[in-house]
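Suppose a colleague, Dr. K., hands you the sequence of a protein chain of 512 amino acids and asks what its three-dimensional shape might be. Before reaching for any lab equipment, you can write down a predicted structure in token form. Begin with the sequence itself:
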Amino acid sequence: MKKFILMNADIWTGSPRQPGAEALVAEDGRIVHIGTSAEIAAEIAPGDEVLDAKGRRVVPGFIDTHVHFTLTGLGHLVINLDGVDSLQAVQERLRLHHERYPGDSLLLALNFQPELNPQKRFPTPEELDVACGGRPVYVMDRSAHWSAVNRAAFALLDMPADTPGVLRDEAGQFTGVLTDQANTAALEQFWQLFSRQVGLKTAIQKASHEAVRGGITTVHALEEWPSVPTLLSYEPVLPVSLVIYSQTRKVSAVCEAGLRQIGGCGSVMLDGDFSPHTAALLEPYTDAPHQHGTLYYEDNELYEYILQAHLNGLQVALHSVGSAAIEQLLRAYERVLREHPRKDHRHRIEHFELPAPGHAERAKKLGLCLALQPAFNHFWPHHGEYPSVIGPDRARMVDPLGSLVKEGLTVAIGSDSPVTPMNPMLSIHSAVNHSNPSERVDVETALRLATQAGAYLAFEEGIKGTLEVGKRADLVVLSEDPLQVAPERLREIEVLWTVNQGNIVYTAGEGE
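The predicted structure, expressed as tokens, is then:
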């Protein structure tokens, strides 16, 4: 029987029954004793794995409720344009990667933000050709809701030229910019192509290391269906636990695979995002009064999808950013649950970024769960680009974390990696330091949203989320106490050790 012992810790258990402790004992991955170091020292025997926390703060293992897992792993193998603020610098970074990895295979670049360069645009197909010699190039915006390709990359897509979202200029010429359905198709097809180039195993290993380095012990992995079988085959040997949400409409296939969750973003999302004007809004965009965004489902199509998943006992999770998409999803959930009531369904809405008045109350009444991403506000504060795009009044309503928590909705947090990093301390920092002071939460609330709330969202609150006897020994040792440091320093706190089911799966400085 494998035994793990944590000693000399300052444990925040997350449980009101025993809020604090100094030490714990786990056998075969489950906690069997929590108490003082003096009590537990007597239980140490030769061969036990003992972790001396040296007085550090220990919290339950973090749960990231929204991660594109294999996409995140592949993202470590592509060109990162994070913070690049000029088109010339974009071209230079692409050129260097092309020269380092010569050939004619597809090049991918992530985290481009067109608003950072003076021209406020994507590179043109011609500029991409100059940088990479005509090689296929795909440049994805940080939000993943619009992108740019050159003609060589576009030719690789199995997609008609008139697909909605293939943008052209006033003269009808191809601009290389993709939004709406065109962007969704490109995202799915290019990542599948790239995963074949580099191998899913490598991507899964990269994503797993990134998770445990951030103190994450469970990931809610939102995956396109083609990668799900591979992910399932590797899951037993990974250092992080997975809850897989299959981004597919193949309800029967998900059931046959023994999974209980379906949906997410990607090919099943309801709308897009604000910057490309594809987030579906009830009222028009301020800077584009003729646009309301895009709904990717017809009402009855969405109802039938959710109905079939619901009748098969699945938990549904669907991306809804704008007020019109949230309204459409609420109506579908209301109809399904009225016709076929089911207790404790825990159906989810992902993002819930710009709800309209009354949406929160309806979501609460339905018993819906909300998976939110506080770091969106860190990278896109409400006073940044939003006032010009949707107006100052609606801008103040974006990412309403504090309001939803105060109203008593079931909320948990995550990253939407690779859109924002798989870094729970950044998510906690963002929740506590929201750019709109009225939407901030306190540190202890943020910790609960990153731990026990995430367990609840996946029906795992009986085994995860708090450190209690009988639950899994999933825990994190931190460099500083988040309950004591200044709020503006929360993101600086480092993970020293990550323990998953009584196994030390990450130690700071090892294998970095």
